[in-house]
Amino acid sequence: MIAMYQPIHDSTAVQQFRAWIEEFDFDATADGLVVTPPEEFDSSFDYYLDVPERLREWLVGLRLLRGVPLTHLVPDPALLPPESIRFFHVDPTWTDRLVDGALSVATIGTSDITLTASILTLVRSGLDHDLEQIARAQARGTWKAGTDPMTGMLIRSELVRRWPELVVRAKEKQGEHLRKVAILRKEVISNDVLIALFAGSPTRVEVREPDVAMRFGVEGETVNLRNFDGAFVTDDNNLIDIQIPFVDKAKRVLDIAGLCKTIAKHAAWKAPDKYDAGARDVAINLEQLPFVQVFTAEAKEEEGSRGVTAEMMVAGRPVLKLRHGRTMQLDRVANRFAPLVQEDED
Amino acid sequence: MSNPHATQVFNSCDPLVDSGDTVQIRIQQTLIRAEPGGGETKLLDVTEPDAVHIRIEGPQTSLLATDIVGVYPAPGSDDSPGDFLPHIALTRRTLPWERKGPEAGCPWLALVLLKDSELVQVSGVTKPIHSTTVGAVQASHPTAYAQFKKTGLPDDTGIDIVYVAMSIAASLLKPENLKLLCHVRRAAQDNPLAKIDDDRDLAVVVSGRLPDTVGEKLELHHAYLVSLENRSDVVAATDRATPLIVLHYWTFTPSTGGDFEGVIQAIRVRDNGGVLRFGNLPRARRSGEPELTGGFPAMLDDGGYLLPPALLHQQTPAEYRGPLRPFEPGPRSAGFAVRPAPEEFDGAPSDAPPDYSYATAFEIGRLATLAGAGLVEDVQRIRVLLNAPEFDVPVLMDQMPDALRRPDWVVNPQWWADPYALPAGETLLKNTAQLLQLGQADFTGIAAQSAPWKASVVKQIEQIAGIEQQQSTGPIDVGIIPGQTLHEMFADVVAMTKAG
Questions:
Q1: Chain B contact for A126, CB < 8 A?
Q2: Which of A56, B29, B41, B200 is 20–30 Å from A149 (CA)?
Q3: Percent of chain B topping pLDDT 90
Q4: Contact check, Cβ <8 Å, A95/B261
Q5: What phi, psi does A116 have (nearest 5°)?
Q6: Contact of A191 with A243, CB cutoff 8 Å
Q7: Inter-chain contact A55–B264, Cβ cutoff 8 Å?
Q8: Which residues in chain A are contacts of B278 at CB distance < 8 A?
Q9: A320 contacts B265 by C-beta, under 8 angstroms
Q10: B378 contacts in A (CB within 8 Å)?
């Protein structure tokens, strides 16, 4: 290394450049030409990188697999069949290579390569910092991009098509408590595929129905009794179901006045028959809250896919039992997805 | 005080005056002064003699798009579960109570849900909406016409009509139910509804009928927001079908595909794809098939490589793994790929298929960036900049003692008081009186001293240059000066005259 004030002429410059290059390892591997810089640059100066904002956003996106064709994320359709959810880890070297490739568009010669390696080091740490900022903005923690795991979830389902704004939350166990895990990316990437990336390894993932404005409905032929403030009324920690009366069951016309009387009768917050229940009570009790599906690390993996059992058969047809006695005929659902399955097989 | 973060629900919002009614506004001004000892004195009590007459107007036979916040299910949709009731949200919180309904206290708006098969044939035509006029209803449905007229509708008023079979109307339009199917909702600030409606107050009309998903073939459903203004006849009518004025209309087909809960719960059940670790296949494992976890057959190995290696349109198989792995991958590589090098496969072991994984990533990153607008230019604009250390800027101090400073160079209150005084009691002025009286001053005295010096210097220069001091011509008195003298004084002029 020449001294700072030593005159530079042809021989000292070459000498300096050679010494600089010798600090790097060059390997021709299956990945292409891989340059490994020294662990720490010996620089007399404190320098930093000025990356145009548009490019920075693009590179952060690459680190989050934006712009990567779905066929390269999922190299075989069988890995993500219709109506499936898959959990995975993200290989940080793979995403680094995306960024390496992006920055290679300005590389021309050997000296560029060496200089690029030093720039790449700064870009990589800068992108790590940006990803950590995204995580910090959502959740406390010390997650280190590239070092700590990045995991994720793929959903290919009618869920995505019908509820593209579905909410994903991730948490991890910390002692007795659950700590929020940041969602680095949650994006619909095709008609029925959604990807979510987590800053860490969550032990609990919640997929929640999006906050639509409002919906009213019944759960089979019942609804859960609610208080005037919307809170569910419980009896010994159990929700109280109230029966829905019908004016004409065949025509599916509800007896709303009868329901209102039932609400007033069951009302725990007032003396029975004295509470003047009205339209607001009917609305509160008929309002349907978003459903939350929870996936936990404790669940047995073999429960993730099971065949139709004898208990699920009703009148010779497979039926899925839902909450509050509601059911759903699975063969009808399967019929809806048949074209998608055929498409994959083709 | 209401909580802006909570949704509030009210039974109704009755306007002070119904639509169509006329009211008078009379203005009265009163000014009263309270007296100190109690009592009060009326200072002003004026009542305007003229009243202002106002007629309250509101929607009666149709709605504007701005009157509607939204409807459920979405128009044209085919994915609403059968357990959810259709509803419509209106921007005017008073709208359902602005007119008189079929009976006292009953809203005048109702949401009627009909299946396609329940549409009534009228004059040989079955259609969901009949566009007509009020007067045209008179012949076929005189009772309904009479009710329309009671509401003040002229015969030529254009209206959309739906004919509802009495068998359905009797159960669907019971006033005791209709009273409970309209309510007012004040949306929470963070509710999506709050962004649509400026005052966050909405009137909601809910249908009392669930969509039909029981049959094998799902029918198109028609949702009508109808007017029941003064329609006390709808339940008691004996006609086969009764006409109702339609203010808003949309269609949808309900779904047997279930709601959110049903769809997500069904994912676990085969033939659906299951909730699995990436790389597992959602079926029972056959004998000899590799396993990843949970007893499922594997499509990826532990490292994420495809099983078996893909052919990828080559004669020899190639290894590939994407960025998604079934297990936590190894530590991040410290290296950087700086160019793709297909030639490295030349030296690859013959018994191992080439691994295209990271080379693929590199190429995707490169090609995607090349395709991105302006990204190549951005890459070329990456600059490494030095963080220059901050240092104190040196300041040159004036070391001159005060005694050497000219008073007029610096600011000093004492000097300003007498700017011509010197420290030793001397003054810069030669003649103070001359300065004060005539405004002239030779501050330094140099002018006076230099005058003789200047004359001496000029004289010496003239001598050095051989210049003779000429006699000044002086003023000429042409009355006494002789001609000879002029010739001598201006000899050159005379010579020029003679020559010319």
A1: no
A2: A56
A3: 34
A4: no
A5: -60, -40
A6: no
A7: no
A8: 79, 86-88, 154
A9: yes
A10: 51-52, 54-55, 58
A156 vs chain B: nearest CA distance in angstroms? 9
Of A140-149, A227-236, B153-162, B281-290, least confident by mean pLDDT is A227-236
Distance between CA atoms of residues A133 and A63, nearest Å: 14
pLDDT, residue B425, reads: 73
| CA-based torsion, B353, B358, B362, B363: positive or negative | positive
Alpha helices in B286-374 (DSSP H): 357-371
Which amino acid, residue A193? V
Angle B357-371/A53-63 helices, nearest 10 degrees?
A: 150
Please state, in angstroms and rounded to a whole number, the distance separating the CA atoms of residues B256 and B330.
Answer: 46
Cβ distance B324 to A46 less than 8 Å, yes or no, reads no
Q: What is the ipTM metric for this complex?
A: 0.81
B171 and A253 Cβ atoms separated by less than 8 Å = yes
Residue of A nearest to B173 (CA): A253
For the segment A209-236, the average pLDDT, to the nearest whole number, is 82
Section A124-149 average pLDDT: 92
Cα of first residue to Cα of last residue in chain A, in angstroms, is 63
Q: Per DSSP, which regions of B375-466 are E strands?
A: 383-386
Nearest to A294 by CA among A210, A173, A165, A207: A207
Distance CA A213, CA B132 (A): 35
d(CA A179, CA A173): 6
Q: How far is A250 from chain B (nearest CA, A)?
A: 9
d(C-alpha B121, C-alpha B96), whole Å: 29
Reported as half-sphere exposure (CB side, CA atoms, 13 A), residue A304 has a value of 28
Q: How many interface pairs between A and B have CB atoms less than 8 angstroms apart?
A: 460
Cα–Cα distance, A79 to A171 (Å, whole number): 25
How far apart (Å, rounded) are the C-alpha atoms in residues A272 and A266? 7
Under DSSP, the state recorded for A234 is E
